[in-house]
Amino acid sequence: MLRWLRNSFLTGIVVVTPVAVTGWLIVTFVNFVDSTIKPLIPARYNPESYLPFALPGMGLLIAILSLTLLGALAANIFGRTLLGFGERVVNSVPLVRNIYGGLKQIVETVFSGGQQSFKEVVLVEYPMKGSYAVAFVSSFAKGQIRSHVGQGEEVIGVFVPTTPNPTSGFLLFVPRSKALPLEMSVEEAAKLIISFGLVTPEHLPPGSIPGGPLKKGPVSETEGAGSSPTA
């Protein structure tokens, strides 16, 4: 009976925890956006000024509509002209242009969904010989980096994320032959990293993890002769 109660309690925790954490994150995000956007709305245009109760999510809705309107405005000729003028002004400031240019490139890469996004998961020998880290292929090296690292071989840029925060990490350039490909999607690898390795993909190709178990083939006569049965 005690074992059944313990197992039922642990099962309830496993079922409830993801739902509760997800709900808490959603409520926290909505409240944060509401507390940021609502003070910017004039009282005469704020529906809560005429209602005896608050409207949860109104700030988030206004933010979505504002971003959509801004995107539509930036897509036409007037918006592109105004945006280009603003970027020229920003690029004239020495320190600000570096920060703006880097952030713009990162955001465009993340939301583009094109060829610049992470498409492949590999294992690289890091941070020391004999230990391996999960990495994402981000680019292909060219110029001096390829000539110094690859010496005629293809060189790839890999992003090695940290655990449990995959948004930070290290950029490494390694020869293609030193990166071991994994039959794993980017989402599966992200789950593996965020969960401290507790959530592992169900399928891994034989031999993809160095030193891991390989599929045993038929034992040859030479190998069988030198082996002895174990108890």
TrEMBL record:
Please list where the region (Disordered) is annotated.
207-231
Q: Which domain of life is it from?
A: Bacteria
**Residue spans crossing the bilayer:** 12-33, 53-78
- Is Membrane a UniProt keyword of this protein? yes
Q: Which UniProt keywords apply?
A: Membrane, Transmembrane, Transmembrane helix
What InterPro entries does this protein's entry cite? COV1-like
| Name recorded for this polypeptide | DUF502 domain-containing protein
